[in-house]
Amino acid sequence: MSKLTDVPKRILIGRALRSDRLGETLLSKRIALPVFASDPLSSVAYAPGEVLLVLSIAGASAYAFSPWIAAAVVILMFTVVASYRQNVHAYPSGGGDYEVAQTNLGPRAGLGVASALLVDYVLTVAVSISSGVENLGSAIPFVVEHKTASAVAIIVLLTLMNLRGVKESGRLFAIPTYVFVTGVFALIVWGAFRGLVLGDTMEAPTADLEIQAEHQGLAGFALFFLLLRAFSSGCAALTGVEAISNGVPAFRKPKSRNAATTLALMGGFAVTMFCGIIGLALATDVKMAENPAHDLLRDGAPVGPEYTQEPVISQVAAAVFGDGSFLFVVLAAATALVLFLAANTAYNGFPLLGSILAQDRYLPRQLHTRGDRLAFSNGIVLLAAAAAVLVYLYDAEVTRLIQLYIVGVFVSFTLSQTGMVRHWNRLLSTEGDPAARRRMVRSRAINSFGAFFTGLVLIVVLITKFTHGAWVALLGMAIFYVTMTAIRKHYDRVAEELAAPEGPSEDSVRPARVHSIVLVSKIHRPTLRAVAYAKLMRSDKLEALSINVDPTETKALTEDWERRGLDVPLKILDSPYREITRPVVEYVKSLRRESPRDVISVIIPEYVVGHWYEQLLHNQSALRLKGRLLFTPGVMVTSVPYQLRSSEAAKQRAKKNLEWNAPGSVRRGLVETGAKRPTPPNGKE
Amino acid sequence: MSKLTDVPKRILIGRALRSDRLGETLLSKRIALPVFASDPLSSVAYAPGEVLLVLSIAGASAYAFSPWIAAAVVILMFTVVASYRQNVHAYPSGGGDYEVAQTNLGPRAGLGVASALLVDYVLTVAVSISSGVENLGSAIPFVVEHKTASAVAIIVLLTLMNLRGVKESGRLFAIPTYVFVTGVFALIVWGAFRGLVLGDTMEAPTADLEIQAEHQGLAGFALFFLLLRAFSSGCAALTGVEAISNGVPAFRKPKSRNAATTLALMGGFAVTMFCGIIGLALATDVKMAENPAHDLLRDGAPVGPEYTQEPVISQVAAAVFGDGSFLFVVLAAATALVLFLAANTAYNGFPLLGSILAQDRYLPRQLHTRGDRLAFSNGIVLLAAAAAVLVYLYDAEVTRLIQLYIVGVFVSFTLSQTGMVRHWNRLLSTEGDPAARRRMVRSRAINSFGAFFTGLVLIVVLITKFTHGAWVALLGMAIFYVTMTAIRKHYDRVAEELAAPEGPSEDSVRPARVHSIVLVSKIHRPTLRAVAYAKLMRSDKLEALSINVDPTETKALTEDWERRGLDVPLKILDSPYREITRPVVEYVKSLRRESPRDVISVIIPEYVVGHWYEQLLHNQSALRLKGRLLFTPGVMVTSVPYQLRSSEAAKQRAKKNLEWNAPGSVRRGLVETGAKRPTPPNGKE
């Protein structure tokens, strides 16, 4: 592990952890906050702007409604945080929304939540990276001029990092997250001080623009609908709140209490930042429009297609700190970095959820075992490819991607909270202690309100955003749902077919004898080893078998065989068409026909080389023969490997793969043996 | 094999042959001619035009040199045919140029010939299909308007046909080839009759155009060089002549004599057609230019980029038969079809040559066994991809592709003929009989002249075409040469490492005992079967091993195990990180450390499903574990398959694959057991 090439990586993220040191990495609240909250905190980088964007449809005067919308988002945030504090106490295993829905509402609801979360991970990557690119672009124009390419490049970079097995490191998350939070608070405090105490006039770069309302003088239901749409967009600030509820096992003790405290802290930070930025945007006269080229006017004329609309946070920072000032650049960089970290949490969460789903046989079983590098890699590549496609299709435009985003989150919020209500009902039906009952009733009330409110928001989101793109997210969910159902059905069918019959006896007819056949092409070390091993097995009958594809070679083989005095009879099968597989399979079948109760043991000498391209040059007929024999009943197929010197390289690689740590191990916490579900993190981070 | 979908195929090419009926398919001369000669005969569709094209650089007056060039090509053709008649008698095994060079000039020359032939197969596909598209386009303008796309589409079609395992059928080849030959002869005879007897003035569609010479009044060395270039292009008529020498085993007896006769017939046809078309082109005043848009003038002005230059054969046909007449369309269709058949011969020849090279360990060994569908498929896809890339890069322009073409052919001609001279020298050094010696001296003289003349042409081709594109062909040859050398080196190194030491004993320490381990995850039919089989093997120690990834499941397993009274001890290994591979590998290693002379037999129950996507859902950990165990010394790995119902589908598929016939079987001829190289066809068809 201490290769020279690892040095930059180690500097970046600290020494890679072996999994047996995982137990040492329980998180303090100080570190847990940035690990789990980079997603919800980072969303304040785009959520306030999205609210203003939607309002601008009714003209700049509609911005006056933004404090009301902010208030609604704050109430929703408090509701969700309060609800999830109940989850954290009730499900300290870190089961998350999937477990809550699965346990209380049944497998279909659970699968629905899982589908929603999978789609949401994809969108977390797409939205966070697109927004990160926009924020980075406010400091480095080149990036925003090549927005789609930059976003895809960052997806590729994150993918490569995660494929290599980068471990989440608390410290790595902590620094930019705290810089970002401190920066935004400094922005709000300094802005308030300048405005209220010094009486400075702070002007955003867009303060002198005018907004051409798409619908001037909107009123009545139309206005109400627009406000709902703006609210829906503001709800983007809530994405990722549930992450902490999945990460409880990763906290230090008392786990649940620490998690609940962190949740409250996170909610407080998010709400303050969200409101502060909206307030500053109004104070500095920020103008944003859905279609800036056309709807923003400078001196009465549209600004035109060359105009780049800066994110609201960077416009506010320009007004308060000064455009291009040191603090402005630091905040832009921290914002971009936090957004990329938020995307990275999806890279960790996606395979973890996959692992839980695999345990419940909704996904291929190999996703379940930790450290199955190949399976994790497939998940990561799937996630990255889907996100990259979305980024490409939507030109890395946050405003368009956000339309797809919030559906999934609220599907899982609603189902999870509904599940929690059921959970308390179930407990209440058996609980006798009045104090405990009181606590439960209180919790149930909180979760009921949570379920109601998030359900309402879900309906609002669906109504206001369906045609704007939410249907894409729903389609994605449906695809995941159907696929996972099909996989589960397949596993169930196979399990039924495999089920062992009761009684002491095994499969139908008991086998009587073993007839072993060593396949021989020529006499070399692997052959000699295979013959030696086969003799040790003391089967009822042992013979060597060679396929005659070249009479000269076969003659040399038989002579050599006799000369060496190998006391195993050598049988030669003719193969005029130079086939290997067919004569062997037919010979095995004929043996089975003669004595149906015999088991045929086919022993194949193989040699092991180090590189895949070397592998291509060897053992291909053995491989195919093995594949074919597996379909022949009453056969066991034995490989006797002979390790060539070059196989040492492959051995080292395989060892390294074993020592590889799956992304997301940190937030998964310690493995607790003895629990029903030892490490059941899931849900969206 | 008698599915409904096979009906169109069967109508097209006759009932598919099982390989055990291969012996019935020896070819009569009447059928052998079209099978082997579609490539050389079809080249008269483009070779005359290429001669005129090059001459046009010096203006239309230079066309007067074309009879001289035709005469040179005829002499060359007679030389090559006479030379190969010697090959056919001397190497009736059908070894072809590769065998001749390998045997007489050593492995490097052999490999050089092989590389040249491989490149040539690619170019045969690219050139023949491009020319076919041009000829088809003279009847169906749409095709030539989308030339590259049409050519690639036809490559894809041929590839799919060959991947499915279409068998060459003599009759399939016979009809269009004979229609084509008859058509061209009719064209020549009717043209001569009209011109010489009736005194008609026949005018080609381009008769009224003028050629603007790129170099007016070329003389001296420059003119000589141009004539050499024109001659080089005309040599395209010789590609594929050597095919018959590879196909001798496919002829009826007396094989060599029949092959020699067919060779002479083919040479006669080709020469007559080539000269006839050049003569008619001069008589009907055909005008062709390298760069027609610019160099062809109509009424003094260039014809411009919309002008499509028709192939010379279709211009002549238009003049003689009348443009769009029935005979014109028939000839155009037959020409295109013969050209596509010529391309198809490369699809057959490429894997056959690969098989010979694999036998000599220059290519992966699995190419050697006949009917290895996967290996053949890889070869076919490689051929098709390379040809498609060339077609795409060169816009399916025959004129540009032909620059690459002839190098490979003449490399193999020259080396093969040089090898034949050596062959006769060797025989002459031992032969005593004066009559035989006389014959040998005569043959040696023919081959010497052949070697000298083809070598000279090779030098001319290299000089005149190197910068025009021949370097691409040389680069391709170099790549094949280096790759094949590297593969051979790898095989040699491995063979050395594997070589069995002399003496009766096997590898170093003789193993003492077998310790068998049955891996168990849960108790189902495959497990029970594996345990039953393992018991039969009577190893010295037998235990079952389960990895505890989930304590609850493990508890259920141990209880079930005891309840069922399986009299095999069950060992449980803890795996706190839910890994399977590592604990097993480490346990096996620890056993080996305790008793280094023990052999560990790991028995893995597997279940077999029918579809690849089902396979993805199962046995992945078993697969990975097996892969990992192969690198562990002193281990044998046994799979005990359990066939699920759905595996029946895969079994059927596998069976069908076994019955699949590799392309090119017909020209490969009957397998003769007992020969040193039973079926050694190779070389280019």
From TrEMBL, chains A, B:
Predominant place of localization: membrane
Keyword hit for Membrane: yes
Disordered: annotated span: 653-685
Origin superkingdom: Bacteria
Gene3D superfamilies named in the record: Amino acid/polyamine transporter I
Pfam families with a match to the protein in the record: AA_permease_2
Membrane topology qualifier: Multi-pass membrane protein
Cellular compartment(s): Membrane
InterPro entries in alphabetical order: AA/rel_permease1, APC_K+_Transporter
Residues that span the membrane, as ranges: 51-84, 105-129, 149-166, 178-198, 218-241, 262-283, 326-353, 374-394, 400-424, 445-463, 469-487
Assigned keywords, A-Z: Membrane, Transmembrane, Transmembrane helix
Name this protein carries in UniProt: APC family permease
Organism: Streptomyces tamarix
